[in-house]
Amino acid sequence: MLIIGITGTLGAGKGTVVDYLKERYGFEHFSVREFLKGEVLKRGLEPNRDTFTSVANDLRAHHTPSYIVDQLYEQAARCGKSAIIESIRTPGEIDSLQGKSDFRLWAVDADPQVRYQRVVLRKSETDSVSYETFLANERREMTSSDPNKQNLSECIRRADAVLLNNGTMEELYQQVESAIHRHQQTTK
Asked: Are 5 and 61 in contact (CB under 8 A)?
């Protein structure tokens, strides 16, 4: 069993990697976004990026920096097959998960303009923003000294594999295959 945590920048293609692993290898998918969406709705709040971020930070502050992904990891471990936890956003989450022998962290990144175009096309409830707001959201999530808050740059730096998604889907899939192959070689 392998559990892959996916981190990366906004609109980089994390969901595309998740879909590929689900379809090609039968991975189960556990989403921080879906976990937060449930919590946001339970609290009667509007589901948008700012609310998700605020609720995530609140949960981490009141429990532990890794609370959300720890909940998802337990679900993934119980499912008994390889799984993906999408989207790792804090070093505290990585600290908790990297202590587990069956865990690997992958990061997905791409150029900002490419990512913004993808965000516009996917039209989710959290992505209807201007390019300036998109960049501001990203800056807010890129660094923090608070272990409860997003620090994507540190998460990407600590990844076992970094997938650069500026090209075609086929090129991204080749990178996924290479990362899977490297994992298989290190576990033999």
From this structure: no
Whether residue 188 is contained in a domain is answered as no
The pTM for the full model equals 0.89
Dihedral in degrees, nearest 10, Cα atoms 83, 66, 9, 157:
-100
Give residue-wise pLDDT tens across range 54-98. 999 899 989 998 999 999 999 999 998 999 999 899 998 999 998
**Structural domain containing residue 34:** 3-181
Tokens for 64, please give them: 């532990």
Structure tokens at 112: 């900002």
Give yes or no for a contact between 93 and 151, defined as CB atoms under 8 angstroms apart.
no
β pairing state of 28-31 and 103-109: unpaired
- CATH code, domain with 60: 3.40.50.300
149: in domain: yes
Total domain count, the chain: 1
Asked if residue 89 belongs to a domain, the reply is yes
CA 176 to each of CA 6, 20, 53, 138, 182: distance values in angstroms, whole numbers, following the listed order? 12, 9, 28, 24, 10
